[in-house]
Amino acid sequence: MFRKVLVTAAMLAAFGHAYAMVDVNTANEDALRGVKGIGAAKAKAILEERTAHGPFKDMADLGKRVKGMGGHTVERLQAEGLAVGPAGAAAGTQVAATSPTKGEAVPAATAKNNPAVAVKK
Fold this sequence. Notes:
This protein is mostly helical. It folds into 2 domains: 2-87, Orthogonal Bundle (DNA polymerase, domain 1), CATH 1.10.150; 92-121, no CATH class. 55% of the residues lie in helices and 3% in strands. The chain contains 7 helices and 2 strands, in the order αβααααβαα. It has a two-stranded parallel ribbon. Helix 4 crosses helix 5 (71-79). The longest helix is centred in the first third of the chain and has 17 residues, at 2-18. The chain starts with a helix and ends in an 8-residue tail after the last helix. Keywords: Signal. Residues 1-20 form the signal peptide. InterPro entries: Endo/Exo/Phosphatase_dom_1, RuvA_2-like. Residues 93-121 are annotated as: Disordered.
């Protein structure tokens, strides 16, 4: 009985790992190569493009900027678990750096994008 539970838990963990999303803006070469359809050359091309021109905005941006990645390829890689997360950590840092001090009003765009920031009246 214990053996069946252990096997079931191992299968669920493997299944969950197989469908884990890989963020193209933060992944290293090994993580990118873990996505079915991305080999060593394509992972290197993605990393070089990201390093040279910054994070990808969305999957269409990835397809435009990386040679050999057309619309169908991008769709297939997205189905395999490749995703584009937030456009770099700099965006989050900038929001944190411009957080208002006590008593200051929060611009509507900041309050909308960062619901944890409350406006004190």
